[in-house]
Design brief:
Length: 931
Amino acid sequence: MNLSIPFALLCVSLPCINSASFPVGVYKTGCHSRSFWIWVQKDFLGPTWQIEIFNDTSYPVVLDDDLSAQCGYTKSRDVYGNVEVRISFLGCWVNNLNDNQFDTAVQFRARRSNGDITYLLSKSCQLLDPWNMREIICEENYMEVSVIRIVPLDRNWLKTDPQQFWPLVQGGLSQRWQVQFTVNKTQIIMSAKDAFKKGYGMNATATRVVFRTRYQSLESMILTDGDYHYNAILSIMYYTQALIRLTVNTTLACPNDPPVMTQTSLSWLTPAVLSPLVLEPSLYTTTNLKLGLNGQLIDANLIAQNHYTFQNDGNTVDVTVPIGAPGGYTESDIVNNTYGSSYRIHLFLEQEWNEQPADITRHTMFKPIVTPFQPLPPIFINYTIPENYYFNVSLGNFFPDVDLKSFIIKKVPLTVIEAKNMGFNVIKVPNANNTNAFFLQVPFNDPLVVQQYINETTSRHYTLYVTYVMTLLEKDKDFTYTEVVVCILADVVLPTYNGSCGADRLILDMTHGNLDRYWIPYIRNLPLTRDLAQSEKYVINGQGPVFHFEVPLFAVGLVYEDITLRGIMARLDWSLRDNKTLEIKSKYSVFCRFPTDRLLVCFPNGTVKATVIGLDTKPNFNPQKTHLKDPTCTPKEADDTLALFSFSVYNCGTVRKFDGDFLLYENEVTFDREVLPENQPIISRDSNYRLTLRCKYPVRDIQQFHGKLKEIPIKRGFSAVYRSSQARALKKREHDELGAVLRLSKDDTFTNFYQSEDFPVAIQRAAGLYFEVDVPRKLPGFPPAMLQECWATITPQKDGFPQWDLIANGNLKRHCAVNIFKGQHSKFGIANTGVPKTNIYVHCQLALHEAVSCQNTKRPDQETEKRSVPPAGPYPISVGPITIVKDNGVQYLHVGEKTWSSWVWILSVGLAVFVVFTIAAVSVAARIFVC
Ligand SMILES: *[C@@H]1O[C@H](CO)[C@@H](O)[C@H](O)[C@H]1NC(C)=O
Ligand SMILES: *[C@@H]1O[C@H](CO)[C@@H](O)[C@H](O)[C@H]1NC(C)=O
Ligand SMILES: *[C@@H]1O[C@H](CO)[C@@H](O)[C@H](O)[C@H]1NC(C)=O
Ligand SMILES: *[C@@H]1O[C@H](CO)[C@@H](O)[C@H](O)[C@H]1NC(C)=O
Ligand SMILES: *[C@@H]1O[C@H](CO)[C@@H](O)[C@H](O)[C@H]1NC(C)=O
Ligand SMILES: *[C@@H]1O[C@H](CO)[C@@H](O)[C@H](O)[C@H]1NC(C)=O
């Protein structure tokens, strides 16, 4: 094929802008039996394009639909949508050499944004298959008949006589060619020129007369023969000369019944005998019947191979094609949000018959068929075998024009490449029917797989939320399919627990299962955080397969189930919770019983429990005989050594005080000494015992528990317990055989004194400190006491260091301002400037000035040898702590081991609404002397 020569010429005479050749591969040309065939890749020309042919003066003429039908050009698409142009060998502007060699040249004009581009094409074809007497073609857009003409004269007469040469007739120079139509049994005769104007195509070539028409012309008819319908034109062309009249029967008929469709196949049924074209049915003989596909005849082998049925029973020619069979094309689409497809196949049927042996007619019918859209909902199959530990699913079945674009798994978009890189297996598996399924394998342990443990079982749910994003390759349209696959597998190993009790702690050992590492540990309703563990001195060892956990007895987080004299029943509630829903996944409780020692517990609901211990004094007192301020409030339980009080802060004479943001509840345990005689109590051998119990609640939370008290029953159990170690320290320190007390006066009048429960006391630096030593007067025969030494320390211990001397050898130090000794009261005052800035404790030692000899008459159990005067001393007494504050701000002083900031912390985690505060005890042991 040589394109350059004709178009190089054209370019000289015509504006030749952007003229180009088709790139290799985007176009094809070929010669069919009666036509040229041109193919151009579908996207190449863009959405807007046209074909131009060159008229006799080489001007490009646009081929519109009418001109195409009139001149034998068919613009079509193949089943795949590529451009296909067929040009009849007998069409206009085809260079026809003796009806044997044909040349054509066309120009495609593509409209581009930056101007038109034209592509030139030319093609030459040689006739391979000789012309029959009559040839009828039922094209997509026209019907054409050509009939051999009997040549009475010289073979070339038409060519040598331009006057007689069609189409010059149409120029009106000759009226020798005429057309006669038969419509509704009426004849209509017109000149060839008029017929041409009406859109009919006519020509006389070297050997043939050609007549062509579009389907719905004015003179066309629909003929019916039995069940069949034809588009038909009954026409005759005449050539009339003085001596001769040439008549050519150009009757045309094309069956036009639509194919019969079923779900699975399509059937194209045509009459075996095309009756409008048959003159003598009795002489009718079929000589040839052939099926063609995509412009090419196909043989029986291919027909069988493609599973087509091609039958002629004498009445009907039946071509049946299974939908989706090879040779056609299935095109996917999305209609109404549903995936589906339609099937296209381009068939043609070539039929030859004769009535006289030589009168062979060849009738060719082109039949492009498109099935209606058929929805094909995608099929999702779950092939998962849970024991394999991966999801195996597939989505099908899609025709090859659909591909997998990406996935969305648990809302994460993943291209196929990304999915593969994540270790997912993605496979396209072809099915027998030319469709594909897309397999996806996702391991159970992938983070994109949702795992859900089912409470109290050993099963978990593995859930795959998958969306396939599919794309229609030809249409650039996407659609999605979403599925949720759940597999239940009993593969959970739960943690196992072992609880034990230490001397002062509860111990939990948890052997890990295979899920608990994803859960959050909780102590009761508190997440086990590093801070909590540190502040509460939990011991944690999380290494290895066993998680070891120790909680000290009085640490926050424990539950005290029961506090009786038998012991404290403490419970550690351990749980593991889901990290999102906080649902408890696993739990275990450790119970331990500890001895009830000294303790004071202030429960959030306002209940106070406290023990008193008879051993705290010498001689020991009987705890059973203790009571609270309200003497009817006696111990809930008591034995010889221990009593347990349990009372509400609203009862038993409990005193309530506001202290800033706190409410302070205070009560006192006292022991009633047995005195003799009862009405005039002078003598007792029992110890004097007082114990102050204090609970301090934040006001905010008090309101809460007041509210709660009304509405719901008091929750039993939880509180924190703090041992009052400072109380023990004070008790030991104050234990003094003389019964003397060192008191801190509120001012220098020595009329008001701070009570033991007032400590710590804050004193401004400027104020000075006034002390009084009080030796009970009611003990007659007591020798006068002398203040020997007084000193200050910053710890409760008398021997604490550093020390500041206040009185040495009975003499005031220089910085002490006052020293009043009056009877049995020794008073002294000191200026604060001389003492340290922080808390101080003041200690003194008393000495007795004279020993008195007495006789013990009352105590039979008391050994007489031991009756003697008390030793001269020293008798230590202490008071404190006292906080010396710089300015008017009163500083909080706390006696316990814990700093105030740690209390605040505990409160801020919302745990407790209480503060255990002070157990201050004063006990005075008395000896009985009878003089
Ligand atoms: C060819 O087309 C051009 C432009 O339409 C027209 O001027 C010319 O007459 C035509 N030539 C013939 C022979 O029809
Ligand atoms: C008629 O046929 C001749 C060839 O025989 C051809 O060159 C001419 O273009 C045709 N004219 C029409 C109008 O078909
Ligand atoms: C032929 O008859 C049909 C209906 O009988 C009518 O529609 C059609 O126009 C007629 N054709 C002509 C050319 O008169
Ligand atoms: C032309 O031929 C057809 C059959 O091919 C026939 O039916 C019709 O009568 C013929 N026309 C004339 C005018 O002979
Ligand atoms: C789309 O779906 C609606 C409702 O299901 C239906 O009425 C309509 O006919 C459908 N359209 C097509 C083109 O299938
Ligand atoms: C998928 O298959 C597995 C194994 O047969 C089965 O356990 C599971 O229930 C299935 N899931 C769905 C959603 O069908």
